[in-house]
């Protein structure tokens, strides 16, 4: 009887699941970028620093209360010179050139709070350039999102070793541009979030993806809360000893500063062993 009373009085927010949705490759299409800005709820826009509409879309996103990060081009395993984005960070770059290219990209995106890798299946496998990158992000107070374009990435590990708030992509929304596949990916992200307390879902401003999100985000399950990728990166970087007031069986790194009344109730689900933190979808090397 006493146990039942305690459970009934426990705040429902302790077991809420956080979902961060990141839209990559923003900046080339003004119309699609504005659709991203107008999506309901908290989202993160990963903008290409030298795309033609980046500056305008960044300012609109900030006014709309969205999180903005630099979607930094990095060297992939295979690419032609024609495919290479301006400002791509490369393995062969010396420190001075590397830092200069990064400085230019960061300066092109006002109000940015973090950085993610655009492509980078080659560069993110190497510790030295990742350490160089994290050093630059650290003194600027920026967070890092590992897009995981390769299973061999060391970027997240280097970020954490160097004290940079960091998080990684769990699921790609539109790896297959088919509405049924997009819906399945979204549901997969919800399952991952419920299992580990959070998930990062990365999509792109494809018309089909935007059509789906415009409808789906108006009808989220009661146990799912939209948050920015930056919020998750900072929360997951908090030391365990500072989070002991939070039930970590579902929310291993809960955020004690959140107002409990803002957290929705949840329906508990049985953990699925297939939904461990390892990413369920690795993009083809790029």
What report would you give on this structure?
There is one protein chain. The chain has helices at 2-9, 30-37, 54-63, 95-107, 127-140, 155-161, 179-196, 207-216, 229-236; strands at 17-26, 44-47, 67-74, 114-119, 143-146, 166-168, 171-172, 198-203, 224-227. It is α/β, with parallel strands linked by helices and 286 residues long. Strands 1, 2, 3, 4, 5, 6, 7, 8 and 9 form a 9-stranded parallel beta sheet that branches.
Keywords for this structure?
16% strand, disordered N terminus, alpha/beta, 9 helices, nine-stranded parallel beta sheet, 286 residues, 34% helix
Count helical runs.
9
Mean pLDDT: 84
Distance between the termini: 57 Å
How many whole angstroms does the radius of gyration measure?
Answer: 19 Å
Order of helices and strands: HEHEHEHEHEHEEHEHEH
């Amino acid at each position: 009887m006493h146990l039942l009373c305690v459970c009934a009085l426990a705040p429902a927010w302790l077991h809420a699941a956080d979902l961060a949705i990141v839209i990559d490759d923003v900046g080339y299409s003004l119309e699609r970028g504005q659709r991203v800005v107008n999506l309901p709820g908290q989202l993160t826009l990963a903008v290409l620093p030298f795309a033609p509409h980046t500056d305008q879309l960044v300012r609109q996103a900030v006014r709309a209360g969205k999180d903005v990060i630099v979607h930094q081009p990095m060297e992939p395993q295979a690419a032609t010179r024609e495919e290479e984005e301006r400002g791509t960070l490369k393995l062969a770059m010396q420190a001075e050139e590397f830092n200069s290219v990064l400085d230019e990209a960061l300066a092109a995106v006002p109000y940015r709070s973090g950085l993610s890798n655009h492509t980078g299946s080659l560069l993110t496998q190497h510790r030295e350039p990742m350490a160089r990158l994290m050093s630059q992000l650290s003194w600027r107070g920026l967070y890092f999102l590992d897009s995981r374009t390769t299973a061999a990435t060391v970027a997240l590990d280097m970020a954490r070793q160097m004290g940079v708030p960091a998080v990684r992509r769990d699921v790609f929304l539109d790896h297959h541009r088919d509405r049924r596949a997009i819906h399945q990916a979204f549901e997969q992200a919800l399952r991952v979030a419920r299992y580990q307390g959070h998930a990062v879902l990365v999509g792109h401003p494809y018309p089909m993806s935007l059509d789906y999100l415009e409808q789906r985000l108006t009808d989220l399950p009661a146990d799912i809360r939209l948050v920015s990728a930056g919020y998750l990166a900072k929360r997951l970087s908090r030391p365990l000893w500072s989070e002991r007031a939070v039930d970590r069986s579902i929310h291993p790194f809960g955020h004690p500063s959140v107002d409990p009344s803002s957290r929705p109730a949840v329906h508990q689900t049985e953990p699925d062993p297939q939904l461990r933190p390892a990413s369920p979808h690795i993009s083809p090397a790029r």
